[in-house]
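Z., the sequence and structure:
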Amino acid sequence: MFFHSSSFIFSTKKVLVIFWFACLQVAILFGAGISHANANLPADISRIFLKQVPSPSGSGYGYRLEYYVRAPIDVFWKFKTDFDSDILLTSNELLDHRLVRVDGNDVYTENRYASAPGLRFLWKTTVIDEKYRLDFELMNVDDCRHKFHHGYIQLSPAGRYTKVVQTAFFDFTGASFWVKYPWYGGMKYTLTSVAKWEQKVAVNRQQVAISAAVDRYADEIHR
């Protein structure tokens, strides 16, 4: 095969420039503000913080769960708002999940959990995109032997990470035992298990997003 050397050099330079630009765009997408944001990150980024908080109503129980995931906020937000994803069933804490309906910003889902396999929990989640916030409430409290269960999930950007804060207030039969029981099925075990699963999922989601970005620029090279 014969080719003109100058055109080969030009094409090579073009490919290198496009490849460099693609790498730069990916770095900007996933690393913007890293130096500033990372200054506020905990020393152990995988650590999960959980504490009990008082219920505003004065009855029942509450908790605040805080952790970081290794993915930018927009990437992780897509995961948190994909209520019909098969990925949800890869969690060991979830036996069954079904998207019931979507009504504007309100999403209704039905879950069955490993810790309560005989019950089906119907949740209403209000999606607030501009605030990266999800407000959730258990709708069939009587069926699940609850008095109430509601709360919110707030995402905040932290450079290439996302900070997740989940706060909930609840009261149900056996709640006093659940919040204190330290082993499988208890509050600490269940919530930290879900948080660790989300940390793992976030890494996979970020890798998928990076691969998609690289593929887009690869298509530009062949045009």
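Residues 1-37, 214-218 have pLDDT under 50 and may be disordered. The CA atoms of residues 155 and 164 lie 5 Å apart.

Let me know what you think.
H.
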